[in-house]
Structure formats: C-alpha cells, structure tokens
Design brief:
It comes from Seriola dumerili (Greater amberjack). The protein starts with a helix and ends with a helix. The protein is mainly alpha-helical. Helix 2 packs antiparallel against helix 6, helix 2 packs parallel to helix 7 and helix 4 packs across helix 8. It is built from 9 helices and no strands.
C-alpha cells in the first residue's frame, strides 16, 4: 500500500511539475525566492514612486511660494525700508488692513444681502455698490501714511508693503499651503502667485495716488487725473468682473488684462508723482 502511494505521488509530480521528484524541494525553494524578489522590488518601486510624488509636490509648492513671496522680500530690501527699520511700521499697516477688512465685511453683511437673481444674471448695481465699499481702503492707506513721519516715498512704501503683505498672507497663504502641495498639478496656483505680484504693484500705485490726492499743494491741473486714477484703483476689481462676464475671458487672459491695467495705472501714477515731486 505504501509503495502504491509513493508511485502515485511521483506520477503526479511528473504530470504537474514536469520535474524530477527528487529535486522538488529545490523547485519549491526557487519559487519562494522568486516571490520574495518580486514583492521586494515591488515594494521598492512603490516606495520610490511615493517619494517622487512627495518631492514633486513640495517642489511645486516651493515654486509657487517663491513666486508669491520673494518679490515682496526683494521690494522690502531694495526699496530702502530695511535701512529705516520700517518692519514694525509695515506690521502696523498690516494690522490696519485687517481692521479695515473687518469693517468692510460687517458693512457688506449688514447692508448688502446676497443676490437672489437668476443664474447667469449679473447684478450690475449690487456689484458696483459693493465695489464702492473699497473706498475704505483709501481711508486706511491715508491713515497709515498720516501716522508715519518722513518723506513721501517712505510713507508710500511703508503703507503699500504692509497693506499688500497682509492681503497676501490672509488671502493666498492658506490656499497655497493646502492646494499647491496636492498630488494633482493645477495652474491656478501659479496664477495666484502672479496675481500676488500684480497686487503689490497695485497697492504701491494706489498709495502713491492717495498721497498725491491728500496733498494741500496739489496743482489744479493734477486733480482730475489723480481723481481718475483713484476711481480706477477702487473699481478695478469691478471692471475685471464685468469684463469676464461680458467677454467670457479665460483665467490666463484675465491675468494678462489685470497686469496690463495695473501697469497702466502704475505708470500714470509714477509719472504724476515724479512730476509733482520735481515741480516742488
């Protein structure tokens, strides 16, 4: 009976494994070794792939962070503010920005209810009135500049740097930290970083226009262009929303139009500022 079972086992081994039953332990050992190498290298590949994804997401976040924040640091260093030890002055300007934004939010929530019109209908009057509330930014910038003693350039840069940096931290820091480190790549974070640079130029120009408008010795020939520039600074966001709604602009086109409009306002403000300073 025992010999019959051994003979049957050897026949099954030849039929299924096609190997000599005497080397069957070697075959089993070789199979185990193959499976070990397969799982080992599979684990290494998955580990390398995860590390690659993490490194690429951090690299993307670093690019967005540098593109958004380094221009502010370079502007602070190269504008001479660091030589005047104006850091805490900029912090006070940022605190004024937070207070002004809180007042604007309370005012909008109280007097401007949510639009309940149909889908796709643009509330022109409501958005225009909401944009008018941005006049508080002009008052805030004037308050910051009036509390700082020094030359006009110093007042403008302190107010603009503090205002723009506070706006950058409050509106773009958290989205960059959460979104730019995601696995899926999205161009909107690069666009957000470019938009922060445009905002810096916008606030410098707006601070310069506010400083010129509040001067008691402003020539009469300057009043009209300065007033027009003030209106453009206040209603720029409203005009951009209107253009997007009417012309159905894409995200990159909107960014380009915003950059062109901000550049035009800045160049006009710079021309008026230089002319006014040299005329005195």
């Amino acid at each position: 009976m025992r010999n019959t079972l051994i003979r049957s086992y050897r026949c099954n081994c030849r039929r299924h494994f096609r190997v000599d039953p005497s080397v069957l332990p070697l075959v089993i050992q070789r199979d185990r070794r193959k499976r070990f190498y397969f799982f080992y290298f599979s684990h290494l590949f998955v580990h390398w792939e995860l590390n690659f994804v993490i490194i690429m997401t951090l690299f993307h976040f670093g690019n967005c962070f540098a593109l958004a924040y380094f221009p502010y640091f370079i502007t602070y260093k190269c504008s001479g503010l660091s030589e005047y030890n104006a850091f805490w002055r900029c912090v006070q300007a940022g605190a004024t920005y937070l207070f002004v934004q809180l007042c604007k939010m309370l005012f909008l929530a109280t007097f401007f209810p949510t639009w309940e019109g149909g889908a796709g209908v643009y509330d022109f009057v409501g958005e225009f009135m909401k944009a008018t509330v941005d006049l508080a930014d002009l008052l805030g910038l004037h308050l910051v500049m009036s509390r700082n003693a020094g030359k006009g350039e110093y007042k403008i840069m302190v107010a603009a740097m503090g205002w723009a940096t506070a706006e950058l931290v409050m509106s773009r820091c958290l989205p960059l930290w959460v979104g730019a480190r995601g696995i899926e790549f999205d161009w909107k974070y690069i666009q957000m970083s470019f938009d922060s640079n445009i905002s810096l130029v916008h606030y410098i120009a707006m601070a310069a226009v506010v400083w010129m408008f509040t001067r008691y010795d402003l020539p009469k020939s300057f009043r009209l262009p300065v007033t027009v520039l003030l209106a453009l600074c206040v209603y720029k966001a409203f005009l951009m929303e209107l253009f997007v709604h009417v012309f159905l602009l894409g995200s990159w086109t909107v960014l380009l139009v915003k950059a062109v409009l901000t550049g035009a306002i800045s160049l006009c403000s710079l021309f008026l500022f230089v002319t006014l300073v040299h005329s005195n």
